[in-house]
Amino acid sequence: MYTAKGQLDRTALIKQYQPLVRRLAHHMMAKLPPSVEVDDLIQVGLIGLSDALSRFESSQGVQFETFATQRIRGAMLDELRGNDWMSRSSRKSQKDIEVVLRRLEHRLGRSPAESEIATELGMSLADYQSLLGKVRGTQLVYLEDMSRGNEDDDTFLDRHVADSDADPMNMLRDQRLRESLVAAIKGLPEREQYIMSMYYEQDMNLKEIAAVLDITESRVCQLHSQSIARLRAKMRSH
Fold first, then answer.
1. Does an H or E element contain 226, and which?
2. Count of alpha carbons within 13 Å of 89, Cβ hemisphere only?
3. Is 2 helix (H, G, I), strand (E, B) or coil?
């Protein structure tokens, strides 16, 4: 879009790409704790969009949306790096859940129910579900799973919410690992399979998934965190 003087119409383009900023923010939220406000991510993302408009050159050989997506994500990551976005206690809780899941699956020979996981953790079902909401920010594959990394270094955030080109999920290209992952997903409870499919295959955000399943967004968040923990427990041997 250009003005009468042949210059980019920044106001019109920002309005046109606002839905992209919102979509990226909502998709990133599933990997972040409840303390992060989606509106804050959107505001920072709009700054990234504005920066993209200033820096974009068609001679670079990429589409503007591709370029803008990188700048928007980058702006959000820079903002998150400046805050203690995931506490040590949340990271520990995440690992505790995985340990319990592996133990229960070995003992029961099946995927344990939420109530069984809660009991094994020594807490009520309500407290366990609340904990799932607090550890939102889990990812299937972390870099330290593939090497001896230090999870407290500056790249911890990037391992959680960086763009797909830098995401450790790309390491799932190995055929045997991919086949194992497919089998692990098929072993999830049915509703959790639906959530994983809608989120990762159909690129739906938590609010959209909640509308489809007729449950609350916070409940989708809990089930998503639990699904990831189940898969990480199953895939630990890889």
1. helix 217-235
2. 3
3. strand
C-alpha–C-alpha distance, residues 36 and 76, integer Å: 11
- d(C-alpha 100, C-alpha 121), whole Å: 7
The per-residue DSSP string of 179-208 comes to HHHHHHHHTS-HHHHHHHIIIIIS---HHH
Answer yes or no: are the C-beta atoms of 173 and 141 closer than 8 Å.
no
Please state the pTM of the whole predicted model.
0.56
The CB-side HSE value for 141 (13 A sphere, CA atoms) comes to 18
Residue 222's alpha-carbon distances to 51, 134, 230, 237, in angstroms, are 35, 9, 12, 25
Q: How far apart are CA 211 and CA 221, in angstroms?
A: 13
Rg of the chain taking only CA atoms, in angstroms = 20
Q: CA-to-CA distance for 173 and 185, rounded, in angstroms? A: 16
Cα(163)–Cα(217) distance, integer angstroms:
23
203 φ/ψ angles, rounded to the nearest 5 degrees: 55, 35
Q: What is the amino acid identity at position 138?
A: T
Q: What is the pLDDT of residues 139-194, one digit of tens each?
A: 554 434 434 444 444 444 455 555 444 445 555 555 666 677 778 888 899 999 99
**What residues does 2 pair with on adjacent strands?**
8
Average pLDDT, the chain: 77
Within 10 angstroms of residue 128's Cβ, the number of other Cβ atoms is: 21
